[in-house]
UniProtKB/TrEMBL annotation:
Entry-linked CDD domains: 7tmA_TAARs (cd15055)
Pfam family, one: 7tm_1
Organism for this UniProt entry: Kryptolebias marmoratus
Protein name: G-protein coupled receptors family 1 profile domain-containing protein
Family: Belongs to the G-protein coupled receptor 1 family.
Transmembrane regions: 30-58, 70-93, 105-127, 147-165, 198-220, 251-271, 283-307
Alphabetical UniProt keywords: Cell membrane, G-protein coupled receptor, Membrane, Receptor, Transducer, Transmembrane, Transmembrane helix
GO molecular function terms noted in the UniProt entry: trace-amine receptor activity
Domain (G-protein coupled receptors family 1 profile) ranges: 50-300
UniProt superkingdom: Eukaryota
Length: 330
């Protein structure tokens, strides 16, 4: 999942004021800073590496060019960029920004855009599984590669547009918003924080939960139906349904982990931002939020044999052999 919107705003939002001599570093213990640096550094490396493996696997092997996998690819791209954003979070542990005004604006812009695109990808994945399970006969015609590409493109386009609109008043005014030298501030106000949380978290999560509850009910009924169908003539149809239900279960785990990682952060960020910024519990909440982006590839590795085979071929450099893209890894 992408970088937290509210966290970005909290780190950027200091309110308007005049610039003083230099930023005031947070009064944190050495153990606190060391713990946060180590945890976030590990998360950053794992996120970049694991999601890069997913990107290479799906783009390289032709057998993986399916509509569902294309959604996983889009999610992996979002999570891949989160790994780089975590690096900046590591550098901001002491409360100061060392990369200048331009990078500060770019950091805030990408953070919001990637967060929104990640949530959007989760919604698209939920819709994909909803149609596959609840309307399987029309799934091949309703969910085609062309439709998925258009949906993903719109998701990313709207994410960039939303980030631009959210931070439009701060472009070119970073120095005015900063309260001190070494500060990275953007003024969107508390109303902007609440609105962003509703748009990028509450509404999408509600849609995801509703869709997956429906998928769960239908999947359970289909499992019961399959157990009663023992005739050999229906064997292939039963296997096809099992495949769809297995995919729904796997992606259901992805969504569940997504909710478990995000909910604690958003609940605390809306109730008390100081809890996130100034307490040790904030370390775990923020780290859990970021950790979601490197958990998804681990879930794929556990549930999808094709991902394990793809990783083996990548690490053994078999992907460079002639015709490797047509290899049978399913």
């Amino acid at each position: 999942m992408g970088s937290p919107v509210s966290l970005v705003v909290a780190n950027l939002y200091r309110g308007n004021g005049t610039k003083s001599h230099s930023c005031k570093k947070q009064n944190q213990s050495f153990l606190y800073s060391l713990l946060l640096s180590i945890v976030l550094s590990i998360i950053s490396v794992l996120t970049v590496t694991l999601n890069l493996l997913v990107i290479i696997s799906i783009t390289h092997f032709r057998q993986l060019h399916t509509s569902t996998n294309f959604l996983l690819l889009s999610l992996a791209v979002s999570d891949f960029f989160v790994g780089f954003l975590v690096f900046f979070q590591v550098m901001m542990i002491d409360g100061c920004w060392y990369f200048g005004d331009l990078i500060c604006v770019l950091y805030g812009f990408l953070s919001i855009a990637i967060t929104f695109s990640s949530v959007g990808n989760m919604v698209l994945i939920s819709v994909d599984r909803y149609v596959a399970i609840c309307d399987p006969l029309h799934y091949p015609t309703k969910v085609t590669l062309k439709i998925i590409r258009i949906s993903v493109s719109l998701c990313w386009t709207f994410s960039l547009f939303y980030s631009t609109v959210t931070l439009r008043s701060n472009f070119g005014q970073q120095s005015r918003n900063s309260s001190c030298a070494g500060d990275c501030a953007a003024d969107i106000g508390f109303g902007g924080i609440v609105g962003t949380t509703i748009i990028t978290f509450i509404i999408p999560i509600t849609v995801i939960i509703v869709l997956y509850l429906r998928v769960f009910v239908v999947a359970v009924s289909q499992v019961q139906a399959m157990r009663s169908h023992i005739a050999a003539v229906k064997h292939r149809k039963v296997n096809a349904k099992k495949s769809e239900i297995k995919a729904a279960r796997t992606l259901g785990v992805v969504v569940l982990v997504f909710l478990m990682c995000l909910c604690p952060y958003f609940c605390i960020s809306l109730s008390s931002q100081d809890t996130l910024n100034n307490t040790l519990s904030g370390v775990y909440v923020i780290s859990l939020f970021y950790f979601n982006s490197c958990l998804n590839p681990l879930i794929y590795a556990f549930f999808y044999p094709w991902f394990r085979k793809a990783m083996k071929m990548i690490f053994t450099l078999q992907v460079f052999k002639s015709g490797a893209s047509d290899a049978n890894i399913l």
